[in-house]
Amino acid sequence: MSEDHLSVTVDVPAQQSANTPWPQGYPDGYAVVDVETTGLSRDDRIVSAAVYRLNSRGQVEDHWYTLVNPQRDPGPTWIHGLTAEVLADAPLFAEVAEEFGRRLEGRVLVAHNAVFDWTMIAREYARAGHVPPVRQRLCTIALAKELGLPLPNHRLESLVAYFGVRQERAHHALDDARVLAEAFAPSLHRAARQGVRLPLLLCRPLTEFSDTPAPGLPVSRRSAGSGAWRMSRKLPPCPYPNPGRYRQGEPLAQGMRVAFSGDTSIERELLEDQTCEAGLHVSSSVSGRTSLLVTNDPDAGTSKVARARRHGTPVVDEAAYTQLLRDVLPAARPPSDPAPGA
After folding, report:
1. Under a CB-based contact definition with an 8 Å cutoff, are residues 132 and 101 in contact?
2. Nearest to 209 by CA among 188, 230, 179
């Protein structure tokens, strides 16, 4: 079978840890996923996808991989190595959606920076007129933070190196999914031994809108220049107290309040979800309690920029902010500890 469409079933080995007491409420199975894409914006497409299916204890059941014809320029070929010529004869996403869905169905989607993989997958399903059959996701960055792993940063290579997993082909979807599955299994068992609550989040299906919103849909705002409408949505509250202002040259810390202003190259919903998953609070306005304003146009005359100047709120651009999101310091106090004035 050619590498552009691969499905393999493997024997599940017995493990000594199979007798470890297992927390009630942990999922029955997992789908460890990695997708390579043409870019990061709402119009970008998947060029390859891989899924490792794991049982409830993190043991590998099988794996699957496919190339996908994105019907556009493949984007950063120097990263994923997939050229237009390689992808020309690959199936369209709509042609692999059913098989992909069988790999996800009834399982928790696991990925490194899961909000990105989930958003790209959900958007492809929306284009195909379907809803992916997965209801929850788990980000291995969030799990590493819950476990307090002593990582130098939260990149995939750091996580897999911590567990002694060898990477063979970085940014190849199948190998990235493999190494993540091999690092997720010991993370899962450590969480079970410590009684850690898994950081599961709901997977909200995406809907593509035309220039005219459908009747009865709660419209919050229009995406600049995209001709698409976005559903109003309520983000989950941040459980951590606000540690105060961001300081230039230092890392972000959980609980900080982050506001956004103006256009971003990465879709705003994706940035907001990444912010929430990092343990930060998304603020809809700027006040004296705002820790940071993210904008690509600090000279714009928007009300948020004006308030940031008035309050002395630090301002960074999108590129700097996405770098800061990679290494967010854990909260000084757990969510249960009240912090006066937070």
Report:
1. yes
2. 230
Which CATH number among 3.30.420.10, 3.90.1150.100, 3.20.20.80, 3.50.50.60 corresponds to the domain 5-202? Answer: 3.30.420.10
Whole-prediction pTM: 0.66
H helix or E strand, kind and range, residue 46: strand 46-55
Give which of 69, 65, 61 is closest to 94, Cα–Cα. Answer: 69
Task: Output the DSSP codes for 239-293.
Answer: -SPP-----TTS--BTT-EEEEES--SS-HHHHHHHHHHTT-EEESS--TT--EE
Sign of the C-alpha dihedral computed for residues 119, 121, 126 and 130 taken in this order: negative
Q: Minimal CA–CA distance to 132: which of 108, 160, 113, 156?
A: 108
Percent of the chain with pLDDT over 90: 60
Distance CA 122, CA 49 (A): 13
Q: Are 313 and 293 in contact (CB under 8 A)?
A: yes
Q: What are phi and psi of 187, to 5 degrees?
A: -65, -45
- 234-252: pLDDT as tens digits: 778 899 999 999 999 999 9
- The Cα 268–Cα 248 span in angstroms is 23
CA distances from 99 to 35, 93, 96, 202, 301 (A): 15, 10, 5, 22, 49
Q: DSSP per residue over 175-188, as a string?
A: HHHHHHHHHHHHHH
Q: Are 140 and 110 in contact, with CB atoms under 8 Å apart?
A: yes
CA distance 113 to 277: 9
